[in-house]
Amino acid sequence: MLTLLPDPQEIRHTESAYTLTNADRVLMSPWNGEDAAEEVLVGALRRVIGRPPLVERMPLGGVAGATVAVARNERAASTVVRMAVRALQEPVPTAAVWRDGPCMPAERTLARRIPLRNRGIGRDETYVLLVHSDGIAVTGSGRRGLFWGLQTLRQVLAAARNRRVPGLTIRDWPTQEIRGVHLDMKYFFQTPAATEEWLRGLSALKINCVLFEYEDKFPYRKYAFLRDPEAMVPARLRRVLDTARRHHIMVIPLVQSLGHLEFALRHPQLAHLREEPDIYFQACPTNPDVLRFVCDLIDEVMDYHLDVPFFHIGADETGFLGKCPRCARVVKAKGETQLYLDHITRVVKHVIRRGKRPIMWEDIVRVHPESVRRLPRETVLAYWDYGQTCERHYPRDLNPTLARFYRVGAKSHELWPDTLSIFEFFDYYRKQGFDVLAMPCLNYGTLVPNIPSTARNTLKFAEKAAVCGGLGTINTQWACFRLPFDVVWYNYGLTAQATWFWPPADTVDFETQFSRLWLGMSDNTLVDATNKVAEGVGFRARGARPFNLLHFAIMDAELHYERGMEDRRRRGSMPRDMNFTRVLREKLRRLAELSDRGDIDARTAWVEQQMRDALHLLKCARPTTPVGRRMKDLLKVSADFKLNRIATIGILRRAFSVQQGGRPTREEVEAALRTENRLRRDLQRAYSHYLPPGQLKFEMRLLFEGEENLLREVLAGSAASFVVGS
Question: Mean per-residue pLDDT for 539-564?
């Protein structure tokens, strides 16, 4: 059975197969632009016939520059092109726009049961792929449609046996206009070469947008001191952007405009822009220099993205509004929301004057959703909520504004209109006249993503965008989780599936599709192994958010600071002088203070078994694609790391607190140090494909410095600190 990813909207199999020969001609209609369409087609044919085919350009039917044929001669090519163009001209249904009313029908049947207005045929992403005994034709409603059709043809050709391509007609179009992935570069920067490889892979999945959050990795000119030592130089950045452009991926830039500015405000040159002297996180919205600074950054970044119609201004999590005396007076007179909107509206209008549509995170206006009406309607609201992974219609409190707007009052949640059942602000924003983007999270996890959690969040949010008329979905990928590209491909693929074809196949079917096409495997072994390696050991102490016992994670950063979470919020989650030894020592101390550690010990034993099971699965896994082999390698070193780190943490717990089993022996500690050194070498080798030297060095510090230093402290202790080994 033919497996494609994402699923096409319509596919009809026929008996009219086509056998490729060395005599085949490739005919492409002329196009005066430049993209990777020919590269994709030639590469796919070369893998089947063993040599690159000759490509000729000549006028063909259909939209100019949007048709390709593979056939023995021009007459046969003309025949298959006519058939494809005729199929393209038939009406194309699209997903329903469902605003409110009674509960939705079953998810999997909704889109097929409701009459739909024709939206797809006018887009330039629709295509037809036809395989007939006379040849193969791909024609699109625009150049992008042709490109996506060739990506589908590449998958069809990969399934050919003895050069025989099965007969079929595919008519296909996307459910969502924007199908994207976010790339946060601040804490975990992957090389431009790895990023280009990632972009080519995304285009094969028909992802058409990436959101670049540059932070200090952009080649700023006016504020050159903001550049990280490994920031992209102009020529390298232009090459990355050109790779995206040639693969029909729109790169939307993001520049933070109020909060999350610690990458800039930590510099003494910009200290005057801070909300308070020790707040690196947030600028002061009433300081006129802040607006000038933000607009300067926006203008520099925008000059690299002049062909993109959108610009993201960030604007989320501004938790320090009203702290400085000047801002406090505004808050007293107008309220926090108006203080926020006064500044953000000026930034929005600056972006609009530059000819772009501003995108902004909506979490601050969500507190008082009626305030959204004060924003220009050109603004696109990026609606994020990573915690909603449950089924619809779960019990909860409803925002009073929504309760009044939808007239539900004190009604039980089972009686609410379905649009309030999950992501309840989405339709409200749409009814206020705003375009909305769904923004789930795809890479939550430690070393590898937690697939069950991220998949549910992705599928639920993509559903909301599909049925409530969203502009699209951009799945967020945060640097704080520090995941290399190749362990996240399952989530990229699921994003593509859920945003192109709706309703998507269930996750069991998707796992099979993904494993076959992306990993070159006949089973789901690597996906199963990923689910096991994703497990970790966390614990809460003193009411804090969970700490990660096995290695440093983003929530552990508060242990670096004297005032804990308060300083972390003010100074940032990843200061450059992070003391990983202090963090680990404090983590072990808080763990020792817990009166009942039985659950943690049981969890640790369970995770240890999960790592052993994962290593057994990986030993049997035989991926045949480069991505699959790299994914296996990353999973193997991650499972080995967690398995052995459990033993190291056990030794440190015994050394620094009274634990059952007594103090560790010198031999145990020395063996643990040797194991940590081996794991460091293994992870460094695996991560070197993705990280530049400075980032790689920091990553090894983050994962190993605390544990190695504490093991050395144990070795340097007095002889009385050790039990003599046998």
Answer: 86
